[in-house]
Every structure is written in C-alpha cells, then in structure tokens.
Amino acid sequence: MTPVEPAPAPAPSAGTPDPTAVPDPAAVPDITAVPDTTAVPGAAGLTHPRRDLDELLTHAVRFSVVAALSGVLKAEFGAVRDSVEITTPMLSKQVALLEKAGYVEVEKGRVGRRPCTWLSLSTEGSAAYARHVAALRAIAGLDH
After folding, report:
1. CB-based contact 50:134 (threshold 8 Å)
2. Are 100 and 93 in contact (CB under 8 A)?
3. Quick one: which of 74, 55, 71, 52 has its CA closest to 63?
4. What pTM did the predictor assign?
5. Which domains does the chain have, with CATH numbers?
6. What are 67-91's pLDDT values in tens digits?
7. Which pairing describes strands 114-121 and 75-76: parallel, antiparallel, or unpaired?
8. 20-56: per-residue pLDDT in tens?
C-alpha cells in the first residue's frame, strides 16, 4: 500500500491572508501591556461617574430599601417590606447588611404588647444614597 500524498493547497487569492503563514512577532499586538492612561482625558483621577456608585447599593433590593427610607424619619419593618414587595426573611437579610455597613439603624420596641421593629436611614446611609443617585443621574446624563 502506498501512502497518499495530500493535494497541494490552492494559492491564496489576492487580498486573502495565507492561513499557513507565520505572523511577524512585531506585528502581533501585546495584549498583556498595561494601557497608557495618561493619554485618556481625566484618567489620572479616573472620573467616570460609575466610580461613585456604592457597591452595596447596586443590589436592587438594598437600593429599594434605602430609597424607601430616604424620605422618612423612620418606618416600621412591615411597611418597608410591603412597599419594596419582598419577603420578611429577604428584608431581614438585606437590613442586616445595610446595618453592618452603617447605612441603616434598627430600633426594636413594642406597640402595646406587639413587638415592632423600626428602620431608619443613618446620616452615612443618607450620604451614600445621595452619592449613588447622583452617580446614576450623571451616568444617564441627567445631571444638568
């Protein structure tokens, strides 16, 4: 049995790169290079408004809770849960994260014999919310 020789590859047509050609190393871009940020306007301070977004408030439920609390001195837990349309366990989890960050204050008490929990936005939480909303408005082009 004689080995079969492969047919010669057709010559590439004009304007079509030769797929078997070895690229010139000088012509291959270095994708590991760090970009030169000095050529980008404002890059020294990196001023895109997304940098002002609060990482904790990028979660829709936490943002909604803080937004609900932003217009009131304090709100009863159940009222916030109902206005944000989430379950009690979900609100508890998100409030715990916001409280740990210092954004929300939790006050427990009683109304008659019924236990009650009130939520309020701290000064730090109010400032974080204002910065986050300002960043969203700037990104959307609504800050004029």
Report:
1. no
2. no
3. 55
4. 0.66
5. 57-140 (1.10.10.10)
6. 999 999 999 999 999 999 999 999 9
7. antiparallel
8. 666 666 665 555 555 544 455 555 667 888 888 989 9
